[in-house]
Amino acid sequence: MRPILYGLLASLFFSSTFVLNQTMKWSGGDWLYTASLRFLFMIPLLLGVVAIRGKWRPLWAEMRRRPWAWIGWSFIGFGVMYVPVCFAAEYEPGWLIAGTWQTTIVAGLLVAPAFRTTRITPAGPVKIRERIQWKGVGLSSLILLGVFIMQFSQAHALSGRDLLLGALPVVIAAFAYPLGNRKMMAICEGRLDAYQRVLGMALASLPLWLLLAAIALWRSGPPSAGQASQALAVAVCSGLIATVLFFAATDMAKGSPHRLAAVEATQAGEVVFATIGELLLLPVPRPSAVSMLGMALVIGGMVLHSLLSQKKVPIPEEVPFTG
């Protein structure tokens, strides 16, 4: 149950991204600053945490061991995840982006065959390709149905162009996040904790954030004090607290695709938290009765995931990995 609780807390802090990205857009801030400043602020914060805990040297040794793997998967897990989300904020409200982001629930299940798991058999350890947990896909689809109902009740106010430019980048980001996260988990093989892994991925993707900040400086000038302070808040709430909580939850659930899917399903809470945040901070309309029905389906699906994850999942027949 603890991984589920960590996942829910992560979704609460993650939801700050969708709300604060909207406030930065409304204040006229460049979306490239919105994307880059989060990580540029996050790196020194995490450096301090890791250094105080005396875990910098193991992280540096791990990154030097496989530098290109760190750069490549960090670019996908952080870069391809966050840049499209910030771009989408130019075209859609935060609650709708938060809803579209929940495609990461199903994405986390569908990317399972991209990974191998070591299993012990009478013939010795074998590598097998992970399988898609179709029961988990069914429960995740219930959550997505609730999300789609909630968003459909208000999405009619947006143009087709805005829906496309807002939704498609977020769907891409939703697949990139679990793929990059799990690949880095596999590369680290339990040698690093969540703080180290997040810092390592942020450092490995640093060239991207510096490039985006340079482009933003060239075309828009320096960021305003308001945008900088809000980006710092996103770095602390979403980039530091939420990311570490979520990575810690996935670390607890690693080795079980079913439990990992349950942890990733908790991120559906972002829709509810983002909606509440926008209602409190921004002049957006209240959710309709249809939207409330969608929220109920989201919460119901999360509860079912949590309950099912507590049951013993049968281990599938061992099949040596040959791909």
From TrEMBL:
UniProtKB keywords: Membrane, Transmembrane, Transmembrane helix
Coiled coil location: none
Keyword Magnesium: no
UniProt xrefs under InterPro entries: EmrE
Protein origin, superkingdom: Bacteria
Membrane-spanning segments: 31-56, 68-89, 95-115, 136-157, 163-179, 199-218, 230-249
Name of the molecule in the record: Multidrug resistance efflux transporter family protein
